[in-house]
Amino acid sequence: MKKIISLTILAAVVLFAAVPAGQTKNKSYYSGDALNYNGQLVIASANTGNLEIFKLNGNSLDRVISVRPLNARFNRYDSYYQTKLSEENGHLYAYAITDFKVDKYDISALSANPALVNTISNTYWEWYGDMDQVGDHFLTIGSQGVKLLNSDMQVVDSYNLKDADQYNIRVSEDGRYLLDIQNNAVQVFDRQTRSIVSTISLNYNKASDNRRAAMDASGNIFVTDDFYTKEFSLDGTLKASFRHLDQPGYDTVLTDNSVYFSNGVGVVKLSQDSLKLQKYRYTGVYGGNGWAMGLKAVPTDNGDRVVVFNGSGILVLNQNLQKTAFFASDIAADEISATPTENLWLKTDTNSAQPGVNLKLSGGGFAPNELVNIYFDGQSNQNAQADNQGQFSANLIVPVITMASTTPSKAVDIKAVGATSGLHYSTSFTVSNIH
């Protein structure tokens, strides 16, 4: 066990030496995304297998969405791996990766039932590991390299940059370069020339496990290895450095004037122009296995908010690295997400009725406890809540259906759609004309 260094030494060398993350019975957070949406700090992570969306509410971090991808072919839930938030035309979207598929959710309402608005599945068996954003385009980072998607999620370009640790690839601030940490170096890939233009040696004990560099708008590269935070020019010239304790250098992120980095035991804030120390924070006190890895720094009207994916939970710090909020992990490491327990079915207590008549609709095969949206002849009618077996019942009133006055009846569809799973099923119903 590494011994704790005194506070006097800490002041000189900046951050604490501590015992690495201990074992936990709950799943850990190590990466995710965050942004400022209409003055609201929104955070996303897929580390638990669910796409989880959080919002900052004063000193509380509230989880408002938790969804998991349903594999309808095998009637089971799979896992999401990574997620990316994006504000588009005033709407907030979350992109979530699972295997060889990307799902796009509209989460603007920040409510429990996001709308799945688009999905892509590649046909060449490429497994996706991460995503990033370039303007209104997106990058998928997968086993076969990096691909550029337009806003309709169509592949428009690709780049031959591969890394087994796909999380370690990040796009530069201006979108031109891809920064990849592997083989104890940061490689700079130029999207214009489609080539690696710089390879800068670093000093990692193990150059894997969520290591990320950043590049500012001027082309300066900021990266933290296991001993120093360093600033390089594009050609690899060292411009400045800052010594931290001999801990793993994980993530380095930038705001207008500051550099933040994580090294497991905590988070450090440096000035961007000189890498001078401004603040530091030991984050292990916020959970028994606190271990700072992924970072996001989000400018707000009240200064930066630093989001730390801290092992035992998600931590939000202010610009002085003081705690604003903390969400403790509550999903068991061995939890198996509930799956539908039967095939889809839907039935009514009568096969026909006139408008205004009460009708009982029952169904099953949906995800346990999910909201089910009911449509009558294509028009939204009402919602029902599935029980823990994925079954529901609802009392409907037969609506007025447009039909010719001489038509005695009209056959229509009643459709039930799982708001979370996307599972849907229809049954036929006859509406009698009123004479």
Structure description:
This protein is an all-beta fold. It folds into two domains: 23-328, Methylamine Dehydrogenase, Chain H (7 Propeller); 345-432, Immunoglobulin-like (Sandwich). It is built from one helix and 38 strands. It has one helix at residues 7-13, and strands spanning 33-37, 40-45, 51-57, 60-67, 70-71, 76-77, 82-88, 91-98, 101-106, 115-121, 128-134, 137-142, 145-149, 155-159, 169-171, 177-182, 185-190, 195-201, 214-215, 221-224, 228-232, 238-243, 252-254, 258-262, 266-271, 277-282, 294-298, 305-309, 313-317, 323-328, 345-348, 352-353, 358-364, 371-376, 379-385, 392-397, 409-418, 424-432. The strands form ten sheets. Strands 32-38-37-34-35 form a five-stranded mixed β-sheet, with no helix packed on it. Strand 24 and strand 25 form a beta hairpin. The protein starts with 6 loop residues before the first helix and ends with a strand. Residues 1-24 have low confidence and may be disordered.
Kindly, what is the distance between the CA atoms of the first and last residues, rounded to a whole number of angstroms? 86 Å
Question: Mind telling me which CATH architecture of the largest domain this is?
Answer: 7 Propeller
- Estimated radius of gyration: 25 Å
- CATH topology heading of the largest domain: Methylamine Dehydrogenase, Chain H
Are there runs of 5+ residues with pLDDT below 50, and where?
1-24
General form: elongated
Computed structural class: mainly beta
Structure summary:
The chain is mainly beta and 435 residues long. The chain has one helix at residues 7-13; strands at residues 33-37, 40-45, 51-57, 60-67, 70-71, 76-77, 82-88, 91-98, 101-106, 115-121, 128-134, 137-142, 145-149, 155-159, 169-171, 177-182, 185-190, 195-201, 214-215, 221-224, 228-232, 238-243, 252-254, 258-262, 266-271, 277-282, 294-298, 305-309, 313-317, 323-328, 345-348, 352-353, 358-364, 371-376, 379-385, 392-397, 409-418, 424-432. The protein has 2 domains: 23-328, YVTN repeat-like/Quinoprotein amine dehydrogenase (Methylamine Dehydrogenase, Chain H, 7 Propeller), CATH 2.130.10; 345-432, Sandwich (Immunoglobulin-like).
